[in-house]
Amino acid sequence: MKPFFDADEDPRSAPLEPDSAPQPVRLQTPYHAPKVTYFLIGLTALVYVAQLLTPAGNGIDLLELYGARINPYIRAGQLWRLITPVFLHASIPHIFFNMYALLVIGALLEKYYGPWRFTLLYFLGGFAGNVFSFLLGSENGFSVGASTAVFGLIAAEVIFFYQNRKILGEYAKQAMTNTLVVIVLNLLISLSPGIDGWGHVGGLLGGGIFAWFASPIWQVAGISPALRLEDRRGYRDWALGAIAVSLIFGLLMAWGFLKG
Domain of 227: which CATH number? Predict the structure, then answer.
């Protein structure tokens, strides 16, 4: 019987079609509305209005008097002054630039971190920055501002993109480069008189340490084409990051008490 195809046309011996070029795949990323960011901006703005309404003289308002980073009061046991300065500001430009940075950076990070982890990051960065300011800043002056916490966010942004560079590819490289440029420029600006540069450095370190342990690390999950990104970090990682920052900067604070 004659075959339905010649030997030369046998499909089993025909050359295979080359594989098509890899196609990009869209992945659903974890997303959280930046509610904490908006809340912090609103609360800080309200506190600043209260500052304007409560002058106390001598270039310092009543809320600064009770909440600023003032070393003698911290040594007297007023440890809340290592957190409360993040809500206080010295002028309209001061609060404007800090809140603008919080809006831009915080809204991005909170989308990926979620509200509770983001809140931890913000206040741990503020705490670390104020501890550094307490140790290395002006002993007789005072400092206020959310920039300690904002610098913690900036450091966490670099860590986030670094740890997810394989998933995010070129976008992660560009984001890290841009953020590192922002860090360098702001640290140079911090050398100007009247700016608490040590607070910025401490915020960077505190935010970076927390993020190293607790920042989201994405992995691909699901079955194609319904693929998604999931965070493989859990509450234990958050706790480890928070404990690391609290322990390191708590010990630094204790050392500051001893040497003072």
Answer: 1.20.1540.10
pLDDT at 171 over 90: no
Q: Which DSSP state fits 102?
A: I
13 catalytic per annotation: no
Range of the domain at 54: 29-259
How many domains is the chain built from? 1
Radius of gyration of the chain (CA): 25
23 pLDDT higher than 60: no
CA 234 → CA 114, 218, 220, distances in Å? 12, 12, 16
pLDDT surpassing 50 at residue 48? yes
Q: What is the DSSP string of 162-181?
A: HHTHHHHTHHHHHHHHHHHH
User: Has residue 92 been placed in a domain?
Assistant: yes
Q: Can you tell me whether residue 28 is helix, strand or coil?
A: strand
Options 133, 143, 200, 215, the catalytic residue: 200
Q: What percent of the chain has pLDDT over 90?
A: 62
Give pTM, 2 decimals. 0.86
Q: How many helices (H) and strands (E) are present in the chain, helices listed first?
A: 11, 2
The one catalytic residue among 147, 190, 224, 246: 147
Q: Is 78 within the bounds of a domain? A: yes
* Active-site residue flag, 200: yes
C-alpha closest to that of 163 among 208, 193, 124: 208
Q: Is residue 225 reached through a cis peptide bond, with omega within 30 degrees of 0 on the bond before it? A: yes
